[in-house]
Write a structure and sequence with these properties.
62 residues, mainly alpha, 0% strand, flat
C-alpha cells in the first residue's frame, strides 16, 4: 500500500510540475514543503525523547 501511495504522490507532483512549467501554479510550494519537513522533524524529536516537544514559529510562517 505504501508504495502505491508514494507512486501516486510522485505522479501527482510530476503532473503538477508540467502545469507549473507551462505557467501554472506551484504544485508543492516551498513554504508547505518546509512546514511538512519541520513537522516531521518535530515528531521525530518527540519520539526520540519519549516526550512532547514545543515548536517555535519559523521564518517561512511569517
Amino acid at each position: 500500500m505504501e508504495n502505491a501511495q508514494d507512486e501516486y504522490a510522485i505522479a501527482t507532483l510530476m503532473d503538477g510540475m508540467e502545469a507549473f512549467i507551462a505557467g501554472g501554479a506551484e504544485p508543492y510550494p516551498l513554504r508547505e514543503a518546509l512546514e511538512d519537513a519541520y513537522t516531521w522533524l518535530m515528531m521525530g524529536s518527540s519520539i526520540d525523547a519519549h516526550a512532547p516537544v514545543t515548536s517555535a514559529p519559523r521564518p517561512w510562517q511569517a
